[in-house]
Amino acid sequence: MKKGLFTMMLAFVAAVGLNKAVAQEVVSGAKIEFAKEVHDYGNIKNGGNGTCTFVFTNTGTADLVIESAKGSCGCTVPEWPKEPIAPGAKGEIIVKYDTKRTGAINKQVTIISNAGNEPTKVLKIKGNVAPPAEGASPINTTGAPTNN
User: Fold this and answer.
1) How many helices and strands, by DSSP H and E, does the chain display?
2) DSSP single-letter state for residue 146
3) Contact by Cβ (8 Å): 55, 90
4) Looking at the domain covering 34-129, what would its CATH class be?
5) Among 133, 116, 107, CA closest to 60
6) Residue 23 has what pLDDT?
C-alpha cells in the first residue's frame, strides 16, 4: 500500500512539474493584450469624427512586432506602430472610419504580429452613421472647387 501511495505521489509531482514547464513555455516571447477589442461609435453624425484608438500592452518577455494591420474594406484605415514594442510597454492601433457612408458600421481590423498568444487578432468597430442633415449641401470629395 505504501508503495502504491508513493507511486501516486511521484506521478502527481511529475505532472505538476510538467504543467509548470508547459505554462512557462506559453508565456515566454511577445504577448499582446488589448484594453478593448470592440469600439462602438453609437450613433455618429454624417461626416463626424470616425477615429478610435485601441490600446495594447506587450505582456510578454520579448519585443512585440506588429507586421501588419488591415481593415476589412477601404473605409476602415488602421495605423500601427512600426517599431518593436518592448516587454511591459504600451502601443496604439488608431482606426479611421469614413463617416460619409450612411448606415450601420460593422467592420474589422486584422492585426498580424509575432505575439505567441494571438499572432492574428481581430478588432471590431460598430455603430451607425446618420444620414446627412436635410438641406445640407453634399460633401465635396472630388477636390474640385465649389461655387458657393
Assistant:
1) 1, 8
2) P
3) yes
4) mainly beta
5) 116
6) 46
Q: Sheet harboring 51-58: ordered strands across?
A: 32-34, 51-58, 90-97, 76-79
d(Cα 46, Cα 50) in Å, to the nearest integer? 10
pLDDT per 10-residue tile (average), the chain, 148 residues: 58 55 62 98 96 98 98 96 98 97 96 97 97 70 54
pLDDT at 134: 79
Show me where the domains of the chain are located. Answer: 34-129
Please state, in angstroms and rounded to a whole number, the distance separating the CA atoms of residues 125 and 99.
12
Distance CA 76, CA 111 (A): 13
Instruction: Give me 20's grid cell.
Output: 509548470
